[in-house]
């Protein structure tokens, strides 16, 4: 007796929504790479380029790491129905680090063209992508994309420690290196201890609230889509 089998699409294939978010991650990684390249060439043209100092800034370190993580997550997004725990944890760290960049950048940019190169004619759009567009994308994508594994509370704790670990490293190494906290972020004068303490306390509180919101977003996604399957 002949049996007729009906082919059904595999449940392990990524949905159109997942493919779209993966493609967007790839586009952001490419645009970010171009922005970094253009900015470095702009700085080199302005005056001798101090790579160690430039890449000691937190926002620049975040940009470099983001290129790698976004490329990996984009490639992995072409298979499977969701981000696994490792990729989800990495994206959580990026999202909270992006929030740290936006929170601490009380001026328009952490490295405004005039500050970075001494050239008021320096191009502004790379700064916009590195210091504004990238952090906003990392946060928005985390909130809007439900196709992720459920992350542990420790992931958020580690993500919260990253900016503070960088700050501690900068203050520790600054006497021996060219590393320093960029004054363009609006850090109050050291002699005004009360204002400075309030400034740091405000940043800490905002980061704590943001970390809880990011964790809550992950929990809401997992409650709405227990298996992280989003039908497109």
What's this, in brief?
By secondary structure, the chain is mainly α. The chain has helices at about 15-45, 50-55, 60-75, 85-105, 115, 125-145, 155-175, 195-225. The longest helix has about 30 residues, at about 195-225.
Task: Summarize the SSE layout with pairings.
Elements: H1 16-46, H2 51-54, H3 58-76, H4 85-104, H5 113-117, H6 125-144, H7 153-173, H8 193-224
Helix pairs in contact: 1-3, 1-6, 3-4, 4-6, 4-7, 4-8, 7-8
Give an account of the 3D structure.
The chain has helices spanning 16-46, 51-54, 58-76, 85-104, 113-117, 125-144, 153-173, 193-224. With 232 residues, the chain is mainly alpha-helical. The chain has one domain (16-224). The two termini are 38 Å apart. Residues 106-121 have low confidence and may be disordered.
Largest sheet: none
| Distance linking N and C termini | 38 Å
How many strands? Answer: 0
User: Structural class of the helix and strand makeup?
Assistant: mainly alpha
Contiguous low-pLDDT stretches (5 residues minimum) are: 106-121
Domain module tally: 1
Notable characteristics:
single chain; 232 residues; mainly alpha; globular
């Amino acid at each position: 007796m002949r049996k007729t089998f009906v082919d059904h699409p595999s449940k392990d294939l990524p949905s159109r929504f997942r493919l779209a978010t993966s493609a967007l991650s790839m586009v952001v990684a490419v645009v970010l790479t171009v922005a970094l390249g253009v900015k470095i060439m702009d700085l080199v043209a302005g005056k001798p380029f101090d790579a160690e100092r430039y890449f000691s800034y937190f926002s620049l370190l975040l940009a470099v790491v983001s290129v790698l993580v976004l490329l990996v997550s984009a490639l992995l997004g072409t298979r499977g129905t969701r981000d696994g725990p490792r990729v989800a944890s990495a994206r959580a760290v990026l999202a909270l680090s992006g929030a740290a960049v936006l929170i601490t950048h009380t001026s328009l940019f952490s490295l405004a063209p005039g500050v970075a190169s001494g050239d008021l004619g320096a191009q502004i759009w790379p700064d916009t992508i590195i210091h504004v567009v990238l952090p906003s994308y990392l946060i928005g994508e985390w909130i809007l994309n439900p196709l992720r594994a459920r992350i542990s509370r420790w992931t958020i704790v580690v993500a919260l420690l990253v900016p503070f670990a960088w700050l501690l490293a900068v203050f520790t190494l600054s006497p021996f290196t060219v590393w320093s906290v960029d004054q363009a972020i609006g850090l109050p004068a050291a002699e005004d201890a009360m204002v400075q303490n309030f400034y740091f306390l405000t940043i800490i509180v905002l980061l704590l609230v943001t970390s809880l919101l990011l964790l809550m977003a992950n929990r809401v996604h997992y409650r709405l889509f227990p298996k992280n399957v989003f039908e497109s």
